[in-house]
Design goal:
Helix content: 40-55%
Number of helices: 15
CATH superfamily of the domain at 34-72 and 161-415 and 452-485: SGNH hydrolase
InterPro entries: GDSL, Lipoprotein_mollicutes-type_CS, SGNH_hydro_sf
CATH architecture of the domain at 34-72 and 161-415 and 452-485: 3-Layer(aba) Sandwich
Family: Belongs to the 'GDSL' lipolytic enzyme family.
Largest sheet: 4 strands, parallel
Strand order of the largest sheet: 1-3-4-5
Protein name: Lipolytic enzyme, GDSL family
Structural class: alpha/beta
CATH class of the domain at 34-72 and 161-415 and 452-485: Alpha Beta
Strand content: 5-15%
Number of strands: 8
GO molecular function, one term: hydrolase activity, acting on ester bonds
Signal peptide: 1-19
CATH topology of the domain at 34-72 and 161-415 and 452-485: Rossmann fold
């Protein structure tokens, strides 16, 4: 007992001594690192392209996000990435003797006779060989990616916005309502005549596209819509990450700030999360192949929310105060997870499909709770200048409205096959054009798309985009800029 009392008294003396030392120490100032996020961005080349074309006092409108806002973004960044990679390998192509052109008619036979190439890969090898010959023959200098939509017969559909819906995404419709886009010409009313086009980061696939090596031009990168189809707020682990990991949500925010002289009277619409949820659901679907799938999901969630926070702070710390932030929709309602064919009795994967759908709903809720918790903290800290937009509630309301009293309306099936065709590349004016095609499903016409809520298995059609745009304008933007309405 005496020994115990001695130890306790010693601890007490130690604590007293420690307290004395602490009380004599100079108080430490806790630095708020949130206030420094985004301040190190080089803005020396930022353009002042603001223009007051509306009576709300909004000087510019930008979007960052994923395919729900993409309007030519994936096409633009794909063209840039492919072209810059082509420029890197071009010296190697130049070293291939011109004699290969004379072998054009013999290529197929040569490849057929090569035992070292597996038979299943020979068709691909033939296409690549013919492509190299065409590049040499036509003296190709550039590469361009085109994305189009066709009807079931392969005829290109007019009015397609080169994004992931059949007409204009919500972001473009909002831009029209704000006066930044002429609805007929789809160009801004600003004196510079710049389109409301895709803006992209200049570090695509890790290359510094602003360097003289790539013949940089501001016009190639500066835009208003930085949203990219497939973009995430967490790291993409599959091969598409080669491109998409350079355009994550914070990369988009940094590109916007780097390229534009942002103002407190600018408006930004940000939406993100759908592709992050797809990645989390894939981890769950493959849960039997790994022992730590739950930890993987938690890690991905934390990374996603951290990057969303960084994107918001990057904007807020660079004078962008008016931001409307949309969360992720309930992806369990998408045809990808909700198509009736997935749950038919004769479907051997019925039970797993049900489990995946339930998890999709669960993880959407978990993601959005973390999303809104972080948003509320940041918004309070920065004076409540932002507004949150609940896509879960909006989507639920839209689905009910779309199918109300109309049995012809379909809300659980897609009407278009995404990237259904990848035709042979064509060469025009020394430019290699690669066209990827979204195709309307067999048996459907362009007019039939109006009866489908969803465009493909994950993206809504134009009706939903217009509904969201009207809601954003009437119930959010007009409230965010109240003084200018008087």
């Amino acid at each position: 007992m005496k020994k115990l009392l001695y130890i306790l008294s010693s601890l007490g003396l130690t604590a007293t001594a420690a307290a004395t030392v602490v009380s004599c120490t100079v108080p430490q100032i806790k630095e708020d690192y949130d206030l420094k996020v985004g301040l190190g961005i080089d803005r020396s080349k930022a353009l002042d392209d603001s223009n007051l074309v509306n009576d709300l006092g909004i000087t510019n409108f930008y979007t960052i996000g994923d395919s729900l806002s993409d309007s030519g973004g994936i096409e633009t960044i794909g063209s840039l990435g492919l072209n810059e990679i082509f420029q890197l390998v071009r010296p190697l192509l130049d070293k291939i003797p011109d004699l290969i052109i004379m072998l054009e008619g013999l290529v197929d036979g040569i490849i057929d006779g090569m035992e070292q190439i597996p038979d299943q890969l020979k068709p691909i090898a033939k296409k690549l060989a013919h492509l190299v010959i065409k590049i040499k023959k036509e003296k190709v200098e550039n590469v361009k990616l085109n994305i189009q939509m066709t009807d079931a017969d392969g005829v290109e559909v007019a009015g397609y916005s080169h994004g992931f819906t059949n007409q204009k995404p919500a972001a473009v419709v909002v831009a029209e309502k704000l006066g930044f886009v002429d609805p007929s010409a789809e160009v801004t009313k600003a004196s510079n005549g710049k389109e409301f086009k895709a803006g992209v980061s200049t570090n695509v696939v890790g290359l510094d596209l602003e360097s003289e090596q790539y013949g940089s031009s501001k016009d190639k990168y500066n835009g208003n819509n930085y949203a990219i189809g497939g973009a995430t707020s967490s790291t993409v682990d599959n091969f598409t990450g080669i491109l998409l990991n350079s355009v994550q949500i914070n990369d988009q925010a940094m590109a916007l700030v780097k390229q534009h002289q942002t103002k407190s009277t600018d408006l930004v619409f940000m939406e993100i999360g759908g592709n992050d949820l797809f990645s989390l659901i894939d981890i769950f679907h493959n849960r039997n192949k790994t022992s730590n799938w739950e930890q993987q999901i938690e890690t991905k969630l934390d990374e996603a929310i951290g990057n969303i926070k960084a994107a918001l702070l990057t904007l807020l710390n660079n004078d962008v105060k008016k931001i409307i932030v949309a969360n992720a929709p309930d992806v369990s309602l998408l045809p990808l997870y909700n198509n009736p064919s997935l749950f038919e009795e004769d479907n051997p994967d019925k039970e797993e499909n049900l489990a995946v759908k339930e998890f999709a709903h669960y993880i959407t809720g978990k993601f959005n709770k973390k999303f809104f918790d972080q948003f509320d903290k940041i918004n309070k800290k920065y004076g409540n200048t932002m507004m949150s937009y609940d896509l879960v509630k909006k989507m639920d309301d839209m689905l009910k409205e779309f199918t109300k009293d109309n049995p012809k309306k379909i809300a659980d099936k897609p009407s278009v096959d995404l990237f259904a065709a990848f035709p042979d590349p064509k060469i025009t004016d020394k430019t290699l054009e690669i066209t990827m095609t979204h195709k309307i499903k067999d048996g459907l016409t362009v007019a039939d798309l109006d009866n489908y809520f969803f465009w493909d298995s994950i993206h809504p059609g134009s009706w939903a985009h217009t509904s969201v745009a009207n809601d954003l304008f009437d119930n959010y933007i007009l409230k965010m800029f109240p003084k200018q309405q008087q």
